Amino acid sequence: VKGTALNVDDVERAPDPLWARGVIEQNYRGLLAYAYAATGDEHLGRDIVQETFRVAYQKRHEYDPASPLGAWLRGIARNLLKREAERRPRGARVLSLQALGGLEGAAAGLQSLHADDTYEENRLRALRDCLAALQGKTRELLELRYGRRLSLKRLSDKSGIGLSGVGMALARARAALSTCIQKRMAP
Amino acid sequence: VKSDELDVLILRYLSGELSPEEAEELRGILEKDPDAARRLLVLADEELLFRKGFRKSGGSKKTWVLRATAAALLLALLGGLWFFRQDPVIARVDRVKGGVVLLPARSPVKPGQDILTGQGLETAGAGSQVVLVLRDRSRLQLEADTLISGIDPGADGKRIRVLRGDLVATVSPQREGKPLRFSTPQGEAEVLGTKLRLLVDADAKQATKLGVLEGKVRLRNLAGKSLVVPGGHSAVAAAGREIVLFKSPSIPPYALPEPGGVATIGVNRAIDVAAAISTPPDRMSVALFGAFGGGTYVRDYSSRGAYVFTALGGHASPTEISGAVLFDFEDATWKGFENSNGIPSNGGGWTANSNGPPWREWTGTEVPLPGHPYLIAAELPASRGGGPKGSVVFVSRAAVNSDGAGARGPHALNLETRRWSRLTSAEQPQVAGIYSSVIFDDSSGRYYCIGSIESRKDRPYYDAADWSQLHATTPQYGWPPFGGGSRAFLDPVRRLIIDFADNGELHALPIDSPGAGWFVLPVSGALPPITSPEPNRFAFYPPDGNFYYRPTKNGGALLHRLVPPTGNALTQPWTADTVQLSQPMPDCDSVRMNDAWYSFFFYVPSIQSLAWIVGVDKPVYLLKPPSSGSSPSAAPVLTLQPEAQTLPEGATATFSVLATGTAPLAYQWQRNGTAIAGATAASYSTAALTLADAGATYGVVVSNAVGSATSQPALLTVTAASTPPTPAPSPLPSSDSNGNEDSSKCGCGTVAPRPPGWGPLLALAAALLLLPRQGRGPLNRGSGWR
């Protein structure tokens, strides 16, 4: 499905492919950010999202159109996260329900942003423009981090800077990039 | 925690780099600080964006190496896919029955065999069949004598070229803009839905008949005009004619026999029927077969008609049931009902409470039950004045002579009201002798009374339009002994009354020119025995135009056949021979009354099968004679009848009919039984309706060189314009003035837009080669969507 990692044929084999496609395309990215934040693991987050849509599809007739679809989907995702947390040993990377509650308010806004299918494309375009304008160590740091997928520990070892210092540098580089993106996307 | 420190903590959390202690610390922060939670979400969203953005742009050497590798692998994959694309296998044979050959080699086809692009298939004669599964999982079932010259994977969708025959297709959803098409000599069917049946005449001047079982199909004729045919409807495309749309006849809830085969339906459970007609079960053989009322097929009783046994009063009648027992082909059940004249059944018995001597004289306006019932009943269809469910006419021998005179002429049992009525109060002359039959000629509305004992050879008949007179054809005296009237039948194709004479001859009277008198028909081959103890029952079988005889005893799987000549039926020899059915059918001597006459053999047009009814507590046997190839002289058979319509004044009514038979077929529409000038097509549209049109009936006579068939009348109801009837939801898709479907309103069964054909495969390859680990989590063990 456009913008997602879900298999097109799988969706179209669903008896109601138009429903599946529409709901997924509008809510996938926002829900993924929510699940990723809740787990700290992108892959686990994607699994949670896929399972969320599968459950939602099965229960689509229970959905009340008068209520926000995103909240309904996050409710399903929250139940799956809770179940996942129960299956994991203490200390594993899933937030508590209380912490998840803190995500809710921001998640609704984020999901509405991603409901616009041009939002992600515009962000990516802005990101590429901003990256092209970046030079020096900031660009190199981001490249190592996101291009080569090095962990902060590896970056620290590679640069000889302490973990905290690398983390701070990365945080600042990201903040700069984020500001640039926001400026480029501003009307 | 400072914001910078929180960001670092979150970034490490999002990378899975936190120690358990640090994770616990972060959870504690998030639980207490909603702003921290919001920050987490923002950073998680950005993290996803950056990961994706860097995957799509930039790139280290390693990334480029990976990309180059991926590109090489993709090229290899594309090469493989190209090879795959060139794979000419387009279908696989799933099942084969009988002789099926692959074209053009004409080699036998086997299950599991691949069918390549451009190859064709041909099924041979009766019983042959092949089922193909296309690569998109569509299924094609080719029935006997079907020829497809090829299946082509065209750029605009698959195209199956059907040159002739009968096929059923269950079509998987096709890509938008690439529908599956069947091209035929007369047009093209474009599948918008899922399940259809196609009947294709080889001759381009004939027709392609389409039945849509589910979904929708667009039928296009050679003139380029098209019509969307919805589920439950049929349509015909023929050269030089508009496409005609019909509501499809419903499928019987029972299996029909194959040609040459036998099927059984509906055991006539005596105890069930007995309760309905107040007759002890042990008298049921009497009620069903011994009432002398005989039986007749009544087309109007239900959508598939019923065979009705009149159980009558009278001195010779065994019971005074006076109602009817019938077998309804709609649902294959037996039904019984008494009359509603207020004359109760006496519960059976040969003599008790009969009208028999001393004869009861009916007086005044009292409607008597028909009396002395030696003349067999015949159908009185709604179009000839019968009830809406049809009526049964009973011309009793009371009209023959003084014996049982109280019955006073012909009666009719209305199967809707269940009431007997006298068709005329006029005193009737004698009509015929006992052991006679009444032969109904649908095309003229005449009821011929054929008998033997009184030897009236002037062939008297009643006209359904005027029962007050008994007409007579030109007298023909001095003829050798005729057969019993119950051994006479009508040949509707050659317009002959045919009588099996006691001397073994076959006699025929051309009913449209009775002045020509009776003829002895020349016969090649041995006629089957006619008289007791092993008489035969006869039936005309319109699908092949032959007559079939069923011996009432020692019949086994034997079926006698009488094949009419293709030339002059009065001078050219008729051919008598036999054919075998796939399994034997019971004899009549198993009937409790042990009388070979109590058996019934007749044609059921609604299911195009012959029926054999014999005995009590037995099933009804359905049979179809073995196929003898194309009939040189197939008379028209109406497969779809015009339907009654209710329309507001000002509207236009269109009636349609579908007929099979040897071409060319001629159509003549009638209004209230009178021919409409210029109405000679398969469908007829009225002028703008007025209230004066209300109650009119429309029918059609379809004829060809060998015969004709008359449709049921369709009633037209016209409502006042100020009070239009509530429109029922139309099963048809909306269309513009050209009949083109409005695709924006059509749930045509096509699927939503899909990426180009390579999309999923390339995405899969890219996912395998370029993307980071996907779907490794514990929830991904299943395939997700099912």
What are its keywords?
heterodimer, A: mainly alpha, 9 helices, B: 786 residues, mainly beta, 17-stranded mixed sheet, 6-stranded mixed sheet, 52 strands, 12% helix, disordered C terminus
Topology:
The complex is a heterodimer of chains A (187) and B (786).
Chain A: H1 8-13, H2 17-39, H3 42-58, H4 69-87, H5 97-115, H6 119-133, H7 136-147, H8 152-159, H9 163-185
Chain B: H1 3-14, H2 20-32, H3 34-56, H4 61-86, E1 89-97, E2 100-103, E3 107-108, E4 114-116, E5 120-123, E6 129-134, E7 139-142, E8 147-154, E9 157-170, E10 181-184, E11 187-191, E12 195-200, E13 207-214, E14 216-221, E15 226-230, E16 233-238, E17 244-247, E18 262-265, H5 270-276, H6 284-289, E19 295-298, E20 306-310, E21 324-328, E22 333-337, E23 378-380, E24 391-394, E25 411-414, E26 419-422, E27 437-441, E28 446-450, E29 460-463, E30 466-472, E31 488-491, E32 496-500, E33 506-510, E34 519-520, E35 523-524, E36 536-541, E37 546-551, E38 558-563, E39 574-580, E40 599-604, E41 609-614, E42 620-623, E43 637-640, E44 645-648, E45 654-656, E46 658-660, E47 666-671, E48 674-675, E49 683-685, E50 697-704, E51 707-710, E52 714-719, H7 759-769
Parallel strand pairs in B: 9-10, 35-39, 44-52
Antiparallel strand pairs in B: 1-4, 1-6, 2-3, 2-5, 5-8, 6-7, 7-9, 8-9, 9-12, 10-11, 11-14, 12-13, 13-16, 14-15, 16-17, 18-42, 19-20, 20-21, 21-22, 23-24, 24-25, 25-26, 27-28, 28-29, 29-30, 31-32, 32-33, 33-34, 36-37, 37-38, 38-39, 40-41, 41-42, 43-46, 45-49, 47-48, 47-50, 50-51, 50-52
Helix pairs in contact in B: 1-3, 2-3, 4-7
